[in-house]
Design goal:
single chain; 362 residues; alpha/beta; two-stranded antiparallel sheet; 15 helices; 14 strands; 41% helix
């Protein structure tokens, strides 16, 4: 164990905190006992561990308990340490526990690393009729799937700026999803088959847990986003959809500098919400025409400019390839560029049979 004396004439507040015995730290008695039995006596001893996983292995604590211990010590006994910092080990552990929201297309889910990620903003952009709204409706149903099937059992908020949400279509997707889960429930482990996992996953129950906000102008959209933190906590929301982000921002602003500032603030609010409440945010964007300054040839690009593109975590561009719908993973901090075919059926988003995903490894 580290020597409790430091060969230095200067004793900083941080040195004093690190030298404190664990008996001075507000920890649960059972946790403190396990730490002491493993030879961890002072705050400095615990901070010497390489991360929560190693601390759990050495002390017999669970990974969650070890993470809470390290977090409590990092915040400081009197608040003198920097609050909010996390180690990469803690972040990796948290990310490994997150589920993804299924799209119901295996190829598309594989492209996204398992589905639409929680704690991030995923942008869907593409031309009209490509399937952006259909994908959003599918996600609103998928996020409610029972935990026995890998779902979140959460509700969804759908912010509709274009009037494109159709309850009848949502009902069709819900019916198909319920039927699919019923058909595969026989393959669940025996202890889950009779657990009533599907008792609450009904068509009416699904529709009840999709909370629609119809925003007719930018002020309504800003007001809804501002009120989201309290609303998602009260209703167990695990998915927020904005369909679309571009509609009001492209029409209601003449001052481009003001538009950029408000859009950046809203994007930051949504990203903070996704991280703090452990939910997925899906933002729909439109396509616009941008002429090339050199050749003068016009090309299709996502709307709202580069500053907005930087604010979204993942960007997926949906487009047509011959007569097939194609999803291109254009931007992601954790996944390689790639593409996947998908189709829109009466039951929602599905795979194109006989087609395989292609990955760009460059």
């Amino acid at each position: 164990m580290a020597d409790s004396k430091v060969a230095s004439p200067t004793y900083s507040p941080q040195w004093y905190e690190d030298s404190l015995q664990l008996t001075s730290v507000p920890l649960a008695p059972s946790i403190r006992s396990k730490l002491q039995n493993a030879g961890f006596v002072s705050v400095r001893d615990v901070k010497g561990a390489r991360g929560p996983i190693d601390l759990a292995r050495e002390t017999g604590l669970t990974n969650a308990e070890a993470s809470e211990v390290i977090k409590a010590l990092r915040l400081g006994i009197e608040g003198t340490a920097l609050a909010g910092a996390k180690s990469a080990s803690e972040i990796l552990y948290e990310e490994s526990r997150r589920l993804a929201v299924f799209t119901f297309s295996k190829d598309l889910d594989d492209l996204l690393g398992g589905g639409v990620a929680v704690g991030e903003i995923t942008e869907l952009c593409g031309c009209p009729g490509i399937g952006k709204t259909q994908a959003c409706m599918q996600l609103c149903v998928s996020v409610q799937m029972p935990g026995a099937f890998g779902g979140y059992e959460g509700s969804a908020v759908y912010i509709d700026t274009e009037g494109s949400f159709m309850a009848e279509r949502a009902r069709e997707v819900a019916q198909a999803t319920v039927s699919h889960l019923v058909s595969i429930s026989q393959f669940l482990p025996k202890h889950l088959r009779g657990s009533g996992a599907l008792s609450q996953f009904t068509v009416n129950g699904i529709l009840d847990r999709v909370h629609l906000f119809r925003c007719h102008e930018i002020t309504e959209l800003l007001a809804v986003v501002e009120s989201l933190p309290m609303y998602v906590r009260a209703h167990g929301v695990k998915l927020v959809v904005i369909d679309s982000m571009a509609f009001h921002f492209r029409q209601d602003f003449k001052d481009m500098a003001l538009r950029t500032a408000i859009l950046a603030k809203m994007t930051t609010q949504l990203l903070n919400l996704a991280k703090s409440e452990h939910l997925a945010v899906v933002s729909v964007n439109q396509i616009t025409v941008k002429p090339d300054p050199v050749s003068g040839v016009a090309r299709l690009v996502p709307a709202l400019g580069e500053s907005y593109a930087h604010g979204c975590t993942t960007r997926i561009i949906l487009s047509w390839e011959s007569d097939r719908r194609m999803a291109y993973l254009f931007k992601s901090p954790r996944l390689p560029h790639g593409k996947a075919k998908f189709t829109v059926t009466n039951g929602g988003i599905r795979d194109v049979r006989g087609m395989k995903r292609q990955v760009d490894l460059k």
